[in-house]
Amino acid sequence: MGVVALVPAAGRGERLGHRMPKALVPVGGVPLLARAVRGLFEAGCVRHVVVAAPPSDVEVVNEVTAPLAPAGGAVHVVPGGAERSDSVRLALLHALRELPGTTIVLVHDAARAFTPPGVVKAVVDAVAAGHPAVIPVLPVADTVKQVDAGGVVVATPDRSALRVVQTPQGFDARVLLRAHEAGGHATDDAGLVERLGVPVATVPGHPDALKITTPFDLAVAEALLVGGQA
Ligand SMILES: Nc1ccn([C@@H]2O[C@H](COP(=O)(O)OP(=O)(O)OP(=O)(O)O)[C@@H](O)[C@H]2O)c(=O)n1
Ligand SMILES: C[C@](O)(CO)[C@H](O)COP(=O)(O)O
Fold first, then answer.
1. ipTM entry
2. Ligand with an atom nearest the CA of residue 136
3. Please, are residues 164 and 138 in contact by the beta-carbon 8 Å criterion?
């Protein structure tokens, strides 16, 4: 089973508002990207990771991630693109060109630095069991409203049928390639796969797999470390 993980890490982190790219921002002294990559390897089923780095930071990203690879594995770093989907596409093409035998591809945000290895394993197991696309999800805790352009409520969707989506998202490599070859952008890779009409299965996500987006999220991440939870 050839499992390769792609880690889009080329975002600027505008909402975090740090002076360095978000992937390199440290929590407890360790960059978010290094934590995310370490979690992937700790799952025990990933040997190769392809990181899409900010184009001006390829070298530093290489220095940060190269030592994390297990024996027989490696971290490959490629320059990312303008949007997340572009970064994933560039990493995917690199993986399929340089790592023949890749059958399962995970796509994991650098910003989800505290994702438990058990979530990674559950996604891989579900793809290996025959699901072409698998995403980790959580139930929605709050009541959700749909609003119009003016912010006026137009509907209250049934939240029992809604899920919050995390990463890593796992795919049969051929399906993910087809989805990216079809082009376009989506906020997650499952969104591209859905457009092919391919079913996307779900497995339970984990609250620790939060996406570190804002300064508040970074404070939550620091608190998880202090509390010994992550
Ligand atoms: N052109 C881009 C944009 C985003 N990402 C990555 O996609 C993941 C999810 O994106 P998000 O957390 O929203 O990060 P940013 O785009 O950096 O955040 P912001 O919108 O606040 O700038 C991150 O690991 C980010 O580095 C990427 O690889 N290439
Ligand atoms: C892929 C993702 O993490 C799933 O929740 C998310 O869609 C990426 O978020 P972004 O802020 O739109 O880049």
1. 0.97
2. 2
3. yes
